[in-house]
């Protein structure tokens, strides 16, 4: 028996779902490619027919999510293919607050920084409302620099602490001295209506810039431990290009791995945490340098033979070895990426740290752990917050079609 009218809505729903899936697949294919691709390339890589791939590309071009570059003649005779690139009209706002820097940055779908503002200072023990008002002001200035034709598809806020993203609450940030803060209450006055900044952990979002060189484009490393060197030390575990957030999103707090139970007290309430030896303030204090000294000054002072500076770096290296070996032994990760001030100290830390890990990591006989420095991004968590928002567009671009 056939019931008229019932099969048609189901078929339409299936067709709509398939189109949604295919649009996302095409957009991700364009964004992931290191070099421009053509409609024919997309058809081959996705298994679609050329006509289907071409229709979907046309939809994405009309929406500004994909753009057509100038054709260039190739070695094959005939009409040259049209190169396709991530669009320039879709972008996201990334905000960052940590104990030493505020940042606001707009990044487009091709990974290009459209506008940014960064301010350095000391926000340890700062008032949450005042500080968030400052970063909101930076956001307003940056958004005023965005071209009129550009569409903001989302926003994110990176914070150095334990975040409840679902409720939009920063539960605790020991180095800021904040707890139970709802940033949206302050930021709403500075952001356009309907643009809400999704909260994320600073190290998690900074790690995303290593896993993705641009929105949807894989980075050089897919499995690694990211160690964020700020005033404290944060961390994130990345497996197959995705941050392992844990049950409640609080995983990766390597800075609060205990390396000496009898060590100095930490702001988190414990003692002997890694950041009490490798955090920027702890390192500089141990070296006898002012809190605003640069990592380069620390390296130069140690190279000049200053015993305190050399000892501070050696202590930090040993503490890192203890903490990192514990993580690598448990999680079987081949690479550690150092960011922030630790990345800038990597040339000094790497040789001894890799030797220490070769002794402490059980599997090192077969695969010696590698230490890498993150790129020179001055506010990677702001970039990561924007990448997170743009990732939602890559997953489901239908809502952004004209």
Structure, explained:
β11 and β12 form a beta hairpin. It contains 13 helices and 17 strands. The strands form 5 sheets. It has a 5-stranded mixed beta sheet with strand order 5-4-3-6-10. A 5-stranded mixed beta sheet has the order 15-14-13-16-17, sandwiched between helices. Helices cover 40% and strands 21% of the residues. Residues 1-13 have low confidence and may be disordered. With 402 residues, it is α/β, with parallel strands linked by helices.
In summary, what is this structure?
With 402 residues, the protein is an alpha/beta fold. The protein contains 13 helices and 17 strands. The chain has 3 domains: 80 residues, Arc Repressor Mutant, subunit A (Orthogonal Bundle); 140 residues, Nucleotidyltransferase, domain 5 (2-Layer Sandwich), CATH 3.30.420; 154 residues, ATPase, nucleotide binding domain (Nucleotidyltransferase, domain 5, 2-Layer Sandwich), CATH 3.30.420.
Under CATH, the homologous superfamily of the largest domain reads ATPase, nucleotide binding domain
CATH architecture of the largest domain: 2-Layer Sandwich
Main sheet: strands, sense, barrel: 5 strands, mixed
Gyration radius, in Å:
24 Å
Strand order of the largest sheet: 5-4-3-6-10
Number of domains: 3
- N-end to C-end Cα span: 41 Å
Count of DSSP H/I helices: 13
CATH class of the largest domain: Alpha Beta
Percentage beta strand? 15-25%
Mean pLDDT across the residues is 91
The count of strands amounts to 17
Order of helices and strands: HHHEEEEEHEEEEHEHEEEEEHHHHEHHEH
